[in-house]
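explain this:

___
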Amino acid sequence: MKKAKEKYSLGSTLLTVFFAALSLVWVVPIFEVVNNSFKSNNYVNLDPFALPNAESFMGFDNYIKGMTFGNYPFLKSAWYSLFITVASVALILLLCSMSAWYIARVKSLGSKVFYYLCLFSMIVPFQMVMFTLSFTADKLNLNTPYSIPIVYLGFGAGLSIFMFLGFIRDLPIDIEEAAAIDGCGPVRTFFLVVLPMLKPTLISVGILQTMWVWNDYLLPYLVLDRTQYMTIPIHVQYLKGSYGTVDLGATMAIIMLSIIPIIIVYLFCQKHIIKGVAAGAVKG
């Protein structure tokens, strides 16, 4: 028994060391972005892996230059990214949780077909629909930051409904029946009884969708009118000078500003991702 425990302890230690080393694969790129955001453009080109020194250190000049470069203000791009992310995630959480509850409780052919269509949307490559999407968005006036959340709802519904449904199927229906006996209709039952119990999955889906929408480049690039609206990922692309030259120091600074909010959100909420996924996957 003692040998088995020692063997298990050794195996756990080796796995810990292995995964700690593996995590550097993701940490190093972030460190390099921070490192180069404080260096002048010439030194970034000459030696991107060197630490800043007395000659190369720029302080916060790269951050100021990146935020004031060109005719399109960075804060405006940040506002559009923030609004699109908040509105899209709110729509996804509300409507997809309601849809999943309907699918779980209403055993009909229509609900099954709708569910399988949602699953099918998860496996369709985006490249197959992007040209049609761009044309349709223009025709339906979905090409502004205030209407594009509807497009994100369509693309995010598949995974979200799948995760919500896995959790809702394990909820005891007796609680909902008791609410109905007390006079609650479907709407009150959902918002007062079901929705509070969905908290683990709501947080999990919310984090995953927030990371996707905030960092997304292709969908806003295809749908939005770039002469009027830019999100942060699009703004980074246009940090170019004459003849297509790119100030890498300023670009790294803007990239750093764009990833700080999502890193903070993830660090505070990461524990809920595993809880939400496990809650929807394990049968009670």
About this structure: The chain has two domains: 2-62, 64-281. Residues 64-281 form a domain with the MetI-like fold fold (CATH 1.10.3720.10).
